[in-house]
Amino acid sequence: MSDPISALINLQFSPAVPIPEHLVGEVQSKLAYVDEAIRSARIAPSGDQITLEIQEGAANRQDAIQEKVQRVVHSMVKGAFKPKIQVLEDHLDRPVIFDRDPMEELAARGEVSQEADGIFSLGPMLTRLIAYFEGHFEHLAATFEAVPYRFPTLIPARYLERVNYFRSFPHSLTFVTHLREDLDAIDHFALHAACDEHGLNVPAESFSRIKTLLSPAVCYHLYFTLADSTLQSGSLAATAVGNCFRYESSNLASLERLWNFTMREVIFVGSKDYVLENREIARQRMMPVLEELGLAYRVESATDPFFVGEFRKQAAFQSAFQLKFEIRARLPFKDSTLAVGSYNYHQDFFGRHLNIQLPDGSPAHTGCVAFGLERMAFAFLAQYGLDSENWPSSVRQAVNG
Ligand code: 5GP
Ligand code: ZN
Questions:
Q1: For the residues 42-50, what does the mean pLDDT come to?
Q2: Cβ atoms of 387 and 100 closer than 8 Å
Q3: What is the mean pLDDT of the chain?
Q4: d(CA 377, CA 137)
Q5: Domains of the chain with bracketed CATH
């Protein structure tokens, strides 16, 4: 990304069209991808002013950068309408006792150790807390008799291509390569590879063409195992936990937004009714769990963070058909909420694109319930702090043994 040592200059201007309040966060998060010289981007909550911090070295490209920003604004905002947010559960005002950002204390106690932007190791307390949450999620999966799977961390490019991932989320992809099978390239690497502030100093030609990426989601792997076949049983409930990767540029911050995070999913494949019914049952079964955790949260309709060109159309579609609901936990220290899980329905999208058939020959419908494990822990600690004496008793007992 950007050069960490160069000086920064501020660039302030108005968007070509005013950005409605409900799109401010969504547009702002995309500005990080507009130009490598952008170190931070902020849009005023009123949507009428954009402030960029750019590297001084790019001062002579200000106009070009501004033009690219306006392209993003135009594409995402023009003709967009405000989606009706449907709130299914509202426990945002559940009393919690903590109001600070837990990151500093987590770092001081050695509970988080940052390896790079968006890449963290977690210590014993966070690991135990996540194991406790996992126990609940595994129990949820067991109530559906969901069968367990283990999926790889890598995912073939041709699979992601088949499900249009490149069009929808190009900005968040993480590519995998290796040295070409070439003695000269490998020898050269062994002798000269070194890291500078820009990364590895290795010529691009040393690397193979990209056939593989790091996986952005868990449930895709299940759909790929079912591709080009008929689901003889007519329905399937499965569960898996896995590493997921979404590159978030300068939006990467604390455990809230990680490049590498872990997701537990319960996945449903079958008829439309089967998937929708089970998604709803899963939501109902999570209510007492979230109550036991004492979590202040809300479940509301949401859309995925589609990239600029696809954003308006796809977000409107998801919203109109209520395809996604998020569990959004309160972050008292910043007076905002964070998605810690989601209830998703993909209609027959994967069934059609991957040719997964039901016994009657129609394409299968799919849906998943997904929990972000690091975010669950982060939101819990943001509400209850690090001292376990202050935690709800069931959590304290489970984690302290
Ligand atoms: P979704 O498939 O709904 O985008 O993601 C499911 C869950 O994974 C989210 O509700 C969230 O808890 C977690 N998640 C998604 N993106 C990130 C991220 O960038 N960082 C972290 N820590 N968790 C994420
Ligand atoms: Zn999923």
A1: 95
A2: no
A3: 95
A4: 13
A5: 8-77 (3.30.70.100), 87-171+216-400 (3.30.930.10), 175-206 (no CATH)
Atom of ligand 1 nearest to the CA of 324: 3
Distances 322 to 27, 168, 295, 345 between C-alpha atoms, Å: 22, 18, 24, 8
Q: What is the DSSP letter of 207?
A: B
> Which residue carries 């669950």 as its tokens?
376
Taking only the tens place, the pLDDT of each residue in 95-137 is 999 999 999 999 999 999 999 999 999 999 999 999 999 999 9
Ligand 1 in reach of 130 Cβ (< 6 A): no
Confidence band for 5, pLDDT divided at 50, 70 and 90:
low
Q: Are strands 212-214 and 175-176 parallel, antiparallel or unpaired?
A: antiparallel
Per-residue confidence (pLDDT) for residue 14, from 0 to 100: 96
**Rounded-to-integer distance, Cα 219 and Cα 239, Å:** 8
Residue 275 in contact with residue 345, Cβ under 8 Å? Answer: yes
List the structure tokens of 252. 């990467």
Residues 281 and 268: their CA atoms lie apart, in Å, by: 12
Neighbours of 10 (CB within 10 A): 9
Residue 202 identity (one-letter amino acid) = V
Write down the pLDDT at residue 362: 98
* CA 149 to centroid of ligand 2, rounded, Å: 13
Residue 2 in this model has a pLDDT that exceeds 70: no
Provide the whole-model pTM.
0.94
Say if residues 126 and 133 touch (Cβ distance below 8 Å). Answer: no
Mutate to test the pocket of ligand 1, among 219, 255, 259, 261 (most ligand atoms within 8 A of CB): 261
Of 302, 299, 326, 325, the closest CA to residue 315 belongs to: 302
Encode pLDDT of 365-383 as tens digits. Answer: 999 999 999 999 999 999 9
